[in-house]
Each structure stands twice: as C-alpha cells, then as structure tokens.
Amino acid sequence: MVAPQVAAGVVAAGAVPLKTAAKLSVLVIDDDQDIREYLQDFLNAEGFEVTTLADPTAAVERIRDEVFHLVVLDLMMPKLSGLDLLQQIRAVDDDIAVIILTGYPSLETASASIQHEVSAYIHKPFTPAEFREVIARIAKKKGLVLRREDELHAAIGRQIRELRKNRLLTLKQMARRTNLSVSLLSQIERAESSASVSSLFKVATALDVRLTDLFAGY
C-alpha cells in the first residue's frame, strides 16, 4: 500500500516538480493497480511521460522496442519476480535506470539488486518527498535533470534586453550593430524565437560582452 500521507493528493503542497529538458519516459511495472495509478499520477505531475504494465512478462519487449529513461519495478509479482525481470532487463539494456520497489525488504534482495546495478531500492510505503528525492538524484546522476529549453530561451531574452537597456540602446540601434532585423531581435528578447549561435555571437559583440554572458548563469 502507498503511504497514508499521499492518499489526499499526489503532489505535496508547495512541492516543485522536477524541471527537465524534455518529457522523460518512465516505465512502471507493478501488479498492484493502486500503485500503478498512484505512480502514474505522481510522475505525470512531475513532468514525466509514463507507461504502466501489470504483466512483467511484457516488459522486456517494450524496453527493447521503445525508449525509456527509467524503470520502476516491483519486486514481488506473479508470473515473474522483480529480480528475474531485472536480470532480463540488464541483458537488453545495461544503462537504463531502475528503481526497485518492495514491501518486503531483505538483505538478500537488496544485495541481488545492487549486483544488477539498480539506481535505488525503495521500501513501501514511501512518501512523495522520498520518491521525488530519489528520482532527482537518479536523474542528476544520469544527466537527465536540465532546465527546460523554453526557460533557457526566456532567460537569454531577459539578459539581452537588460544589457541592451543598460547601454541605452534601442532595438533599431542593435539591428544596425548586429545586421539582424528588428523583428528577429524582438522575438529573441521575448523568447518567441530561438537564436542561432551566430546571431547570439553578433548580439554579444554588439553589447561588448562574452557570448556566455548571455546565458544568465545556465
């Protein structure tokens, strides 16, 4: 069963969803429908794309045919145990992150999981905060937690606009200095258009700053 404290809602009040470069894909394998539905709601709220499976025997084929960044796997399932499935998964993909869930933790299963390089071994019940922390740690280790691309464009636009105004330059003056159109410069500042490296270099030169200064600390 999922921890009682999560029954009232999937995302805890004030929790900030993970920020990712794109929708990361998660495969949840658990014969317990309540767990599947809970994890699907939780992970969707965190910005992930979620696929759920009740039948563990169908998992390897899905992993072989589709791209998943993370597998959340129950340890005790009919037809095929989580450890046996983990071994099969590693035979087709030795890099994919795997989280083991179990209501019956033991030193034996924990050791066996570690041998197959699981990313985390989580005891049921667990809280949203605990699960979020585990996913954040795994994603960071795998290089998956990144700022969204649209946030980067917005940050660059704000930085360019601020630098331009600090130098008392109009968009028309910037257009003359960069040989870029006023329309394009305006779109870049409003994050309505993604600027090429060449365009950003021209803007940085016109503002007398380094190219990296336009990225606002990203």
Please describe what this structure looks like.
The chain has 218 residues and is α/β, with parallel strands linked by helices. The chain has 2 domains: 4-141, Rossmann fold, CATH 3.40.50; 149-215, lambda repressor-like DNA-binding domains (434 Repressor (Amino-terminal Domain), Orthogonal Bundle). Helices cover 45% and strands 11% of the residues. It has 9 helices and 5 strands; from the N terminus they run E-H-E-H-E-H-E-H-E-H-H-H-H-H. The protein has helices spanning 33-45, 59-65, 82-92, 107-115, 128-141, 149-166, 171-178, 182-189, 197-207, and strands at residues 25-29, 49-53, 70-74, 97-102, 120-123. A 5-stranded parallel beta sheet has the order 2-1-3-4-5, covered by helices on one side. Strand 4 (97-102), helix 4 (107-115) and strand 5 (120-123) form a beta-alpha-beta unit. Helix 2 (59-65) packs parallel to helix 3 (82-92). The radius of gyration is 23 Å and the shape is elongated. It starts with 24 loop residues before the first strand and ends in an 11-residue tail after the last helix.
Give a short summary of the structure:
The chain has 218 residues and is α/β, with parallel strands linked by helices. It has helices spanning 33-45, 59-65, 82-92, 107-115, 128-141, 149-166, 171-178, 182-189, 197-207, and strands spanning 25-29, 49-53, 70-74, 97-102, 120-123.
